[in-house]
Amino acid sequence: MRVLPMICLGFLLGVIPLVWGCVNPEPPRNGMLFDFEEDAELDRFRWKCHSRFFLSQAYARHGKSSLEMSFFPTEQVGFSTGHVAHNWSPYLSLQFFVYNPSEASSTLYIQISDDHTQGNPARACTRELHVVPGENKMVIPVAGLVDTTSRPLETDRIKGFYIYMKDIRIKRTLYFDFFRLI
Fold first, then answer.
1. Nearest Cα to Cα of residue 91 among 140, 23, 50
2. Tens of pLDDT, residue by residue, the chain (182 residues)
3. 121 CB contacts (<8 Å, ≥6 apart)?
4. Of 4, 49, 68, 90, which has the highest C-beta tally within 10 A?
5. Are 181 and 33 in contact (CB under 8 A)?
6. Sign of torsion, CA 29 34 40 46?
7. Of the candidates 125, 124, 150, 152, which has an alpha carbon nearest to the alpha carbon of residue 140?
8. Cα–Cα distance for residue pair 137/28, rounded to 1 Å
9. Number of Cβ within a 10 Å radius of residue 5
10. Start-to-end Cα distance in the chain
11. CB 55, CB 4: distance < 8 Å
12. How far apart are alpha carbons 10 and 14 in whole angstroms?
């Protein structure tokens, strides 16, 4: 009779950490968010019309592949994260690489949302990123992220981010790689 309660207790002690991890996902110990080494990683993003994307072996900064993203003429287009680590508070910055094969510079935007922005892009923290020809290392400090009302983002409750271009007049192709928290 004592065996059954012990089995139930053991089961609960094994399941509770798994369930808690689903509720409040943590980044892997190395801070890696996206590295574009497998097709399954593309399923973690939400894609917008007027874009084309696939894994490419061109301009890989880490590993063998990068994300090749083509932005076609439109008002605004990009990609947003689906499953991303929620707790960024132990980290100093979000870092990633963008390779621009064009001879012209481009401007990207990144919107970072927490639980309070509730998916409203007008409230998210928005940063402008200048992308010069060649390799660009993007570093976004975690400390000091504020929304449009100057409210500090709750870095332990990050929902995700959206990277986009706007007012695109001609097709632009960029390569992304090695998204991580440092």
1. 140
2. 554 444 444 444 444 333 333 444 455 557 999 999 998 888 777 776 777 888 999 999 999 999 999 999 999 999 988 667 789 999 999 999 999 999 999 999 999 999 887 667 778 999 999 999 999 999 999 999 999 889 999 999 999 999 999 999 999 999 999 999 99
3. 111, 113, 162
4. 68
5. yes
6. positive
7. 125
8. 21
9. 9
10. 51
11. no
12. 6
pLDDT at 28: 55
At residue 7, what is the residue type?
Answer: I
Reported pTM: 0.81
CA–CA separation, 134 vs 171, rounded Å?
17
What is the homologous superfamily of the domain 30-181 according to CATH?
Galactose-binding lectin (2.60.120.430)
What are the tokens at 18? 């798994």
Residue among 71, 96, 79 nearest 43 (CA): 79
Dihedral (Cα; 10, 28, 163, 105), 10-degree rounding: -170
Task: Compute the residue count for the chain.
Answer: 182
Handedness of CA 81, 84, 89, 95 (dihedral sign): negative
Angle value at C-alpha 54, between 24 and 35, nearest 5 degrees: 40
Q: Which residue is listed with tokens 């998916």?
A: 119
Q: What is the pLDDT of residue 133?
A: 98
> What's at 24, amino acid-wise?
N
